[in-house]
Amino acid sequence: MTDRQTAANQYRRQPLRLMLIEDRTISAIDIETKIEDLGHCVVDVASHMSQAEDRLARSSGRIDGVVLNPRLVGRSASSLARSLARRGVPYVLLTDLPEDETRREGFRGPRVAPFAPREAVRTALDDLGRRCPRRSMLPQARPELA
């Protein structure tokens, strides 16, 4: 195996450290289980805006990204998304809301529906991983090395 192949494999195996922001317990348990089954780690969970804001403020350097429900207890979480963008923290939306509706509220990025199959979660987290600042410092996986 070449050095490039080794670096590409290390990139793919690097687990993400994620914060989960979801107000529905059943949905949170489902997505957390799938995230961990995929080899990643949920390091913190928040279920409402003030809790999420507090934990994000204390999470500097501890998380690679966030899985975010755009509506927490009926309120838009767009202020959290803006805060994440300012900090350079990528996120995946956990929603079944129409994409045009979430885009109007200012949300961007990959999305996965609650209770989505594991492969859909993998795809969204792979996208998040490519946008993760910590991972961008690692050697990039290249198609010819896969």
UniProtKB/TrEMBL annotation:
InterPro entries per UniProt: CheY-like_superfamily, Sig_transdc_resp-reg_receiver
Domain of life the protein comes from: Bacteria
GO BP: any one term: phosphorelay signal transduction system
Residue ranges constituting the Response regulatory domain according to the UniProt record: 17-128
Gene3D superfamilies in the cross-refs: 3.40.50.2300
Transmembrane region(s): none
Protein name: Response regulatory domain-containing protein
Originating species: Histidinibacterium aquaticum
Lineage: Bacteria, Pseudomonadati, Pseudomonadota, Alphaproteobacteria, Rhodobacterales
